[in-house]
Amino acid sequence: MSKRDYYEVLGVEKGAGEREIKKAYKKMAMKYHPDRTQGDKGLEEKFKEIQEAYEILTDPQKRAAYDQYGHAGVDPNRGAGGGFGGGADFGDIFGDVFGDIFGGGRGRQSRARQGADLRYNLELSLEEAVRGKDVEIRVPTLVECEKCHGSGAKKGSSPSTCPTCHGNGQVQMRQGFFAVQQTCPTCSGKGKIIEDPCDSCHGHGRVEKTKTLSVKIPPGVDTGDRIRLNGEGEAGESGAPAGDLYVQVHVREHKIFKRDGNNLFCEVPLSFTTAALGGELQVPTLDGKVKLKVSPETQTGRMFRLRGKGVKSVRSGAMGDLMCKVVVETPVNLSSKQKELLKELEESMGKETAKHRPKEQGFFDGVKKFFDDLTN
Known about the structure:
Blueprint: H1 6-10, H2 18-32, H3 34-37, H4 41-57, H5 60-69, H6 90-98, E1 118-124, H7 126-131, E2 133-144, E3 160-161, E4 170-175, E5 178-183, E6 192-193, E7 206-217, E8 226-229, E9 245-251, E10 258-260, E11 263-270, H8 272-277, E12 279-285, E13 288-294, E14 303-306, E15 322-328, H9 336-349, H10 353-356, H11 358-375
Parallel strand pairs: 1-9, 11-15
Antiparallel strand pairs: 2-7, 3-6, 4-5, 8-9, 10-11, 12-13, 14-15
Helix pairs in contact: 2-4
């Protein structure tokens, strides 16, 4: 009986990466493992097929031979690239894959862990966020010990292989078909032990230090944006790569402007007479004051757009606008004469309410219709 394509067995594409292959195997192995299929011989054979496909596709040499020659390339009877051989231990292969959950696998050397990523919260004013700036930040972190260069061992000595896990960093507990990987209690998963620790870092290979970094803030950043500094996080263990530092931006609220994307919004007070007769008023922008022409009979709440006076997009470079909402101010602290003048103005309008106050007339017409509808 001809064998099925290994990629088809695991349900992955031919170009699938190792992580995708492992994920597919874990899902299928959990489903078809003999402990779950209650002695079903057909499903047990399927499990063996899954294991065989996994072993071939996760071995670079065997996978290359399979991709080039098919099953013939990994047939042990043909001598091309080795083979599955049918004698694999269920527990070994099952434990090798699921050992990844605990940080390692069968027959693999323990790998030093990459340093942790760090986050720094940076608070900016709106002006700083819009224009950009260079800032210096101080970040407490772990750096590689200069005295032992990260090894953790005193000068003239070196770490030795752990006698418990033989350098794997994991120990295996077996029970029936299951093989569970656990972190080695002797070396804490490092695979090595330090008999003569460095007197500077006390065997840790890393020391605490506050670093001063210069960060270039690009123009247009906003709250929630992150700036990534590669390799500026914590140093890795035993020479492993350092993590990254993420500078998290938060923009403080502004007294005048509110920001929405690349646009700015502000409210501008407008005098009663200017709103009625029209005129000019000065409005603030982040670049200084500009004149805004107000047409006669402007109502409160009207929005004026000043193009290009907003924020430059940090991604596209497009300029936003400044949206000015005018708020008509009612005169206060009036003198007796001013009050008389306003009364004269009111009287001069007479009964022509709809002509001079269209919104008021429209509102009361709507109220009248509302009550008429209720009574009908």
